[in-house]
Amino acid sequence: MTAPTQVKLKPGDTIGILGGGQLGRMLAMAASRLGLRCQVFSPDPDSPAFDVVLNATCAEYADVEALELFANDVDVITYEFENVPAASAMILAARRPVLPDRKILETTQDRLVEKDFVTRLGIGTADYAEVSSGAGLRAAIARIGLPAVLKTRRFGYDGKGQAIIRAGDDPDRIWKELGTKSAILEAFVPFACEISVIAARSADGQVECFDVTENEHSDHILKISRAPAAIPEALAEQARAIAQKIANALNYVGVLAVEMFVVPQADGEAKVLVNEIAPRVHNSGHWTLDGASISQFEQHIRAIAGWPLGKPVRHGPVTMTNLIGNEVDSYAEWLTVPGATVHLYGKGPARPGRKMGHVTQVGALPPKTA
Ligand code: AMP
Fold first, then answer.
1. Is the pLDDT of residue 263 over 70?
2. Which SS3 state, helix, strand or coil, does residue 303 take?
3. Which candidate, 150, 222, 293, 299, has a CA 20 to 30 Å from the CA of 7?
4. Residue 345 CB contacts under 8 Å (≥ 6 apart), including other chains
5. How far apart are alpha carbons 85 and 4 in whole angstroms?
6. Is residue 32 packed enough to be buried (19+ CB in 10 Å), middle (13-18) or exposed (0-12)?
7. Dihedral of CA 342/49/153/159: which sign?
8. 193-362, what's its fold?
9. Structural contact between residues 85 and 62, judged by C-beta atoms closer than 8 angstroms
């Protein structure tokens, strides 16, 4: 990868954020604390990030004129959403520095390209094979075995665009239902737990990792994160080293998240396999807002502003609980829980599966009473 553009913002300068969800909202709030302004670009008029910035651009990502005007208004551009079309990122990059480099999106937008990249670095992943037809799926199953997970190569998130295939299932039916021409088949990983590493990298190559986080999912959506992960220190060190290697290989500037599986081995040891790279701040790093001296959002802003990264210190054991769908209705109860910090994203309808807010709790949790 080419050397990242040198950016040195001053307080009062403006950061352009592509994407208007809760990640953009929390990035803008972190920037504001550092005296920086943000302008958010999002096609959705109800974007939660619009509420916290003075200037917003509500336009489609393919709207060339809107992209140009947006670029003219800002000093550096970043994203909270990794599926920004490559052509839009190119238009922006011709006018302003885009960090992390837009070419990184080409690696992380496609599960096959991403897994090939991780494998080339000598880092373990689940066994995988490219699939582009029903016959191809049968051949991949013969190679990888069952159970296995079939995933669309692009635009999958929170378990969307994927299906588990078990012995006895009809691969042709599953292929048709997935409704894509490009997928990968992954061996099903019998993991002991799922972890993630949130790493920040500056343009001069400094990397700072937050403590490894352990993640619990429910219906494929992150439900609870705990830091530090309850894993041996040697394994945590291995996980951080993997995130650092990936960040360096991408010549990354900003915060990225690497999701991993911890897999028990026959000899009683465990190993770490990479599942996915998110080229952005990540839900599993929300605990850093209240649980550490510097949040993932501030680290990202510092990195893309060309400012020194912080050395984050965790304040104690931290638990982050997502409020998903109508769970947000319990916000008033959470407000009364001693030690809990409530974050609400100001979103419209609490549709099932929609991330509406989260709660962080620092310190040992009291025993459950209900
Ligand atoms: P992904 O969209 O790849 O992050 O997958 C969403 C969730 O599905 C993961 O967090 C895991 O809980 C589960 N999952 C994904 N891939 C695999 C796999 N190869 N083996 C076992 N579970 C998986």
1. yes
2. helix
3. 293
4. 21, 22, 25, 48, 355, 356, 357
5. 20
6. middle
7. positive
8. D-amino Acid Aminotransferase; Chain A, domain 1 (3.30.470)
9. yes
Residue 4 pLDDT level (bands cut at 50, 70, 90): low
Q: Is the CB of 42 under 6 A from ligand 1?
A: no
pLDDT of residue 268: 86
Q: Which residue's alpha carbon is at the smallest distance from atom 5 of ligand 1?
A: 159
pLDDT given at position 160: 76
Distance from residue 1's CA to the centre of ligand 1 (Å): 28
Distance 121 CA to ligand 1 centre (A): 21
Ranges of CATH 3.40.50.20 domains, the chain: 14-108
Place of tokens 């894993």: 231
Residue 81, ligand 1, Cβ within 6 A = no
- Which of the four pLDDT bands, split at 50, 70 and 90, describes residue 6? confident
| Phi and psi torsions of 364, nearest 5° | -60, 135
Q: For residues 200-208, give the mean pLDDT.
A: 97
- The distance between the two most distant Cα atoms of the chain, rounded to a whole number of Å, is 61
369: Cβ contacts below 8 Å, ≥ 6 apart: none
Q: What is the pLDDT of residues 158-189, one digit of tens each?
A: 667 899 999 999 999 999 999 888 999 999 99
How many angstroms separate the alpha carbon of residue 250 from the centre of ligand 1? Answer: 23
Q: What is the CATH number of domain 127-187?
A: 3.30.1490.20
DSSP state of 43: S
174, with CB counted inside 10 A (0-12, 13-18, 19+), is middle
Quote the Cα angle for 192-108-197, to 5°: 40
The CATH code of the domain at 14-108 is 3.40.50.20
